[in-house]
Amino acid sequence: MFARSALRSSLASSSRLFSTSTPRQTKVAVLGAGGGIGQPLSLLLKTDPLVSSLSLYDIRGAPGVAADVSHVDTPSEVKGYAADQLDQALDGVQVVVIPAGVPRKPGMTRDDLFNTNASIVRDLASAVGRVAPTAHILVISNPVNSTVPIVASTLSKLGAFDPNRVFGVTTLDVVRASRFLSLVTGSTPAECDVPVIGGHSGATIVPLLSQTNLGKSLVGSGETYGQLVHRIQFGGDEVVKAKDGAGSATLSMAYAGAKFANALLRGLNGEKDVVTPTFVKSPLYESQGVDFFSSLVELGPKGVEKIHPVGPLAPEEEKLLEACLPELKKNIEKGKAFVA
Ligand code: NAI
User: Fold this and answer.
1) Catalytic pick among 136, 200, 230, 308
2) Is 200 tagged catalytic?
3) Which of 14, 21, 165, 280 could cross-link to 271 by cystine, CB 3.0-4.6 Å?
């Protein structure tokens, strides 16, 4: 059994974007800072008291974003870097957030982005491995199920892979699950923390409503449960459709990215019981060929402190997990094969 009390205390604070502990100096880089996610994410990170310095990089537009964000009245330093300044942007950074790459258009799956984003992520990871080999890397670029193995394999080739320091950001699924459950139950999102496990696309997203006080009675309730699970798994499609060709989730993703970055920074600062789902190198389903998996992870001074098992599942959730694992395995293998 995982430490439920730790989960509660960590997730209980999750309705606030940032919580603080005694700050140390933390330099954070955003690679892809000029994009739809990168810009609001940079703004939110500027307001995080645990960030002392922000390094904003993109192949276009980052110096302008940096000049703009740098006027916000918080103490952190902000610098922007142009296309040919990636190494300078990474100099001395402890945390690197990667939202670089193309987003979906209507009708596309996240896997359809593979051809373009795989090489972008590989090249950025390679630069991090060379210039900032001890940095923690937060991967937002899709398909996360493949881009995280790409980062891991790229770093492995350089002898710089530490599984405690590479994270796929699945926080938007957690944020959506909380919001959507609150709408169904007429409560507040703060009362609706939902562990979401598996991966970050469609059927690989597995919400564990049976482990929540307000959601457990819905499990097996037929239509309401089925619709809620579908909305959590395919919530991203609602945004892609509404934006009608202009991209996918950017603002809610920036919020989720900033929230996860803050959780990691709190862990790095020594705060206890920081527990949140994230997609990491994981032993949980390794015997089935799935060696990256999102489950509740305790974050600490070295990054991943402890990977919690998934805990008891309802029969409906066992079925969701059965559908998740083979697809996730394929996505992971595709990422590894790209680097090999
Ligand atoms: P966008 O197109 O608005 O921005 C992407 C930025 O990346 C652009 O500014 C572009 O110049 C930059 N870029 C491209 N190649 C680069 C390189 N080699 N180095 C540095 N920067 C580079 O796209 P958006 O909407 O910001 O999405 C970014 C990624 O995030 C997409 O892959 C999208 O699918 C993913 N995403 C992930 C989510 C998650 O939950 N993990 C949720 C939503 C989107």
Assistant:
1) 200
2) yes
3) 21
